[in-house]
Queue: 2 jobs
Job 1
Amino acid sequence: MELELKGITKRFGSLVANDGIDLVVAPGQVHALLGENGAGKSTLMNVLFGLLQPDNGEILIDHKKVTIHSPNDAIAAGIGMVHQHFMLVPVFTVAENVTLGHEETRPGGLLDRRKARADVRELSRRYGLEVDPDALVENLPVGIQQRVEIVKALVRNANVLILDEPTAVLTPAETQDLFRIIRELKAGGTSIIFISHKLKEVQAIADTISVLRRGKVVGQAAPTATEDQLAALMVGRDVQLVVSKDPAKPADVVLAVDGLTVTDETGRIWVNDLSFDVRGGEILGFAGVQGNGQTELCEALMGLRPIAAGQITLNSRDITHATPRRRLHSGIGYIPEDRQEDGLIGAFTVAENMVLDVYDRKPYASGIRLNLGAIEKNAAERIPEFDVRTTSADNPVGTLSGGNQQKVILARELGHEPKLLIASQPTRGLDVGSIEFVHKRIVAARDGGAAVMIVSAELDEIYALADRIAVMYEGRITGFRPPTVPVEELGKLMAGSTDAEAGAPGPPGPPPSQRAAAASGLRSDEGATREDTASKRPGGEEGEK
Amino acid sequence: MSEQVPHRPFWKKALFAVMEGNVVTVTVLAIFTAMVIGGLLTAFTNTAVLNAWGVFFSSPWHAINLAWDTAIGVYIELFEGSIFSPHTIAQLFQQASMSTALHDGYLSSVFTPISNTCLQATPLLLTGLAVALPYQAGLFNIGGESQWIGGAIVATYLGYGVSMPPGIHVIVCVLGGCVGGAVVGGAVGLLKATTGAHEVIVTIMLNYIMADFLAYLLSFHYLMQAPGVNPISPNIDSDSYLPHLFGPSLYVNVGFLISLAAAVFVWWLLTRTTTGFEFRAIGKNPSAARVAGVNVERNWVLVMVVAGGLAGLAAAAVIQGTDFQLTGTAYGTYGIDAITVALLGRGKPGGVVWAALLFGALYAGAPGMESITGTPGSIVDVLQALIVMFVAAPPLIRAVYRLRTTRAAGVSQVLSKGWNA
């Protein structure tokens, strides 16, 4: 079935989210929609799925005009959608979730569970989905939950499947599995609309790429187009995918961690006897598959998690048992992994969020009195400095796009010149333009003399930023490497090989040259064999609103 | 994303704001709707009106007029009993001179209704704040009642059990009431902070405990029972009475000023202090607050201490302002009314002031309305319930008045968030 969108226009007040968009999706094709957050990708798909009504334009299926007023119309027309945030009932089984909304009954009004289970099993077998119809959804990892969503669409005979930012919540290994499933679906004749702002994924899976910018289709590209070309199309200017930086000039040790061990309430060891130093003026990058203790390490460093053993020293002061507030006061800046949960208060204004962890210090407070003038002035200075796009400093921060929210956090944490910056997944969910900005600011903080610790699941990011790479596996550091290390070697370390097995250990000092390995296009796939609990939470990522 | 706001004349902006159904509009329309339904209810439960419907076909206008007059009559009497009554003004001007008018109480009778409204509003405002403040910090305080009792016990005991110089006695009693409430409130916060017990459960259970504790205190002469067989405390000393604001003939007393000052204090605390910043932060996103260095548990205790203190002040205002002794049922429905007031005021100090004045007016007007029109005073409870019901259902109000459905998410959040916040 061929799907065609003609001149779709959708306005929200004075904002034109979709401006005369034309798009043709051929049968059995993966059509990628690439665009920055806020480019109008999700709006377009919501129009196609009947969640929004377009102001102008029409939708044609096999050259016949159709009207789609609701998701039911869309499903009847053979369009299925997997939302970024899954629409599943956690306490229901897979089969129950799949059948929900079009339950088939046996005589007497009883649910035909057997049929539902058989349907799931049949689809699972045909496309290699490997979904157990009797599993409870809440017990499934995110990647499998996503497959349940795909099964839901397929059971309803979807010929066109819309995947809205499907990889945002997946681990690298789960992403690879998803790509395999997409290829199987394609081979079966299903068309896929794949929405993303990640260049590599789009190159890897798409047959055709349409680039959206500010509500318009600004270009079509083949998957052979280079990353730089795609990025330039997306952002509308040339983008530095790897920030240029001078060699690090490491100074004194700022953060010294010695024998740190962190366990959770159940006694599970997350961080196991970890020791490392971070010096002023250098960036230490923690590579590793998510769920290997990086989150727990950062939280323990911030005092948000009890420490079982070990010592943390900041500028030769012992802060092992200090409260989070005292650590913040002694000069740590922290960019948490989950910005909406831990980094920002969505209902607070931009100005308030910009002082969220310094509100009790001068000049923002004297005694218990808040100095609203100083808070306002701070926002007025930081908003242009960090290029936060908001109509007013009094807007709730929850109304900003993901990239702008991250800039608010950066403005807060970097605006007060921290001695140590701990940044966990600093660019997760951001588009290329924002990533470039965040990277530049982090490098600038290093050049200003701050000690910087980066945790990232994106190897590209580690290569682009780190002066020294530490690889974490199951709560331990399996090796330190300079950023010139080949990807394969990092991969082995991330999979748990020790220094000796993974090749000659490099000296744990700053390397001579920086950018050598930066172009390597791999994410941290290698070691992602175990299920990490951290990835079970959907959400945390946001697309355009 | 540059949004161009087209220039509009003022009246258009105002109309737009109304049509968008913002918070104030929805509240006003909710009150209006409740009054319409309340009016229908009074008209159709009145026996005279029902008899008139019986002869509808012989004299149709009679029935309709009678129904209208009955409904309107209730509101006129409520208004005259709570705001002002034109008759009192007429009487005032019939007096020969200003001095006789003053002497015979004609001037004060003009202000009697508004004075009664303020008097009724005082405890509602204070207990309403005791719910609204913790709400801002993400806690749902159902325990206005137990905190009120805690304050009442201390204020009453200090009132009759201790003798002090006049000026000091009244202050000590008020502060004692505040402390009594704060102890009960603080206990809730402490239990939540140390054991993780949910504040809704704890406060509800404490309501029973404190009510029974009060009954216990009032059943033994060596505890708080006055001589005699009734469960009632001795009268407090007249030194500890809250002074009237405008002479003896108007009942409104210093308690009303205390309640207004408390509202200003809560507003200041929430918007102008680091403590309030922390309260609001843990209310909106406790995990981000924790990451930002806020001690969430400590703030739970603190906010409940302050809330309990406010409820204790309400008790002091009642004991020292109007009751002058403590009975086993003096707490009445303050705890539940406080939730309604806080809901109608949308958890904001300013809103709570208006809500308390509205409900205070309803209570002040009810007795007069009942005796003049014969409509049961409980119509006031019905009105109160209807108002809260409509305020809690903004989509209903927007649908009835065809308002646009932007904004106005505030209240549904109040209700839906309450239990797990």
Job 2
Amino acid sequence: MTHDLSRSIAIAGVAESDLGKVPGRTAIELQAQAANRALVDAGLRLQDVDGVFAHTDDRFPALQLSEYLGLQPGYVDSTNVGGMSNLSHIRHAMAAIAAGMCSVALVTYGSTQLSDGSRKSGAVATDSAASSRGQFIAPYGQLSPIGYYAMVAQLHMRRYGTTARDLAEVAVAARRWAQLNPKAYRRESTSIEEVMESPVMAAPLRQRDCCLVTDGGGALVITSAARARDLPGKPVYVMGVAESHAHHYTPFDTPDWLETAAAPTADAAFRMAGVTRKDIDVVQIYDHFTISVIQSLEELGFCRRGEGGSFVADGALAPGGRFPINTSGGGLSYGHPGMFGIFLAIEAVRQLRGECAERQLPKAEIALCHAPGLVFSCNTTMILGV
Amino acid sequence: MSEPQRPLPEPTQLTAPYWNAARDKRLVVQCCQGCGHLQFFPRPFCLKCASERIDWQEVTGEGTIYTFTINHRAPNAFMKERLPYAVAIVDLDEGVRMMANIVNSDLAAIEIGKRVKVVFERVSGEIVLPQFELV
């Protein structure tokens, strides 16, 4: 039985702001620029927006953006659960629209992390020294999030024999997609060897196993399926979406770091959508680290646990490969302004609309986006269809 | 220029017994007086049975490396001077998990599954950090 809310909303507009290195701009400027472009893309006006879902590194981001855009929305949401936040917002917008609490939702993100130099080697601001993280994590010099994913990679290599070359395959495939995307930040050619010889950050992860640090913003316009059908563009329906939340930065109660809540979250999204893994044409997985892609492919059920390394080998994820994914070039090569979730949805929508030119997948009717937040702390899986 | 300072924990009323014990070179974790459940990090009640009758129990300080990383980049100037260093997740034999550095050990010898034992590192006048070394 299909879930009542499956296909109840559609993504009607998507856009990025200026991307890459955008000196002299603020996060709110990029966020607002993306919002305006997404509304133009949807064929809607600012005055149509009555729900604002915003996420930045600032406090009170939904109020800040509403003020900036001159909006007085009846519904706002500034949920911050890390990189997946905007995907989580799509699910929250689905509930709000179904409940009649808003009708046109603007989902946004913006950051000037590269120009600010605010994330050097993962040294993000920590919580207070009296918090659990401040007392039991911060004194030990753990890089966050790199150190946690390095620990996951260490476990994966030990338990399953995954290699540094397997990890590098993910980075090289991302770069090959970026070479087909004029908006991507890093487009020069690279090789497995170059990735494997890049400086070690937190062993076994090297610099090129880690996502970029860039500036950029993104926006989505979401409305009911019925309203979307009256708009000029091709609606992209949310067929299924699920999320789960486990920890913050102190994951001592997660028994096995290679068997996470991502798997049941994906199952729930598939059940809601009423489709199976075989039906998916387009896959966009949050690639903050090469290991996260391998782990997510396993958790999502595209391969069995332990087989992720061989699954990505021989250019499988690259253009023309056995399992082409992350067609924008991903966080590893297209851009990563701190929180990448919204960009997964933007690329999925463009693939489903057939707007991806050189990087367009031949068959693109159903797409899956998957993102964790923080340090495998939470998960959102979303399935989109036309 | 003053020497960079390590990020230090700020004990609270709830966690003070943990840090006080560490100063005496003892590792303690919370133990529920209702159901015997051990938990780490400290909470104001037992996550298993909801009892607020929580006490502290000394543990052996022996455990196994669940996973680890060797840092070649540091999040602050203090740790930068100590590069490269190991950060590990340690499973204590009593069944609780914690983070620490693996100290006094050959970094190349650190592996998942290896046995470790707690040692105590004084990092300020007030604070002694539980750390681990390879057995």
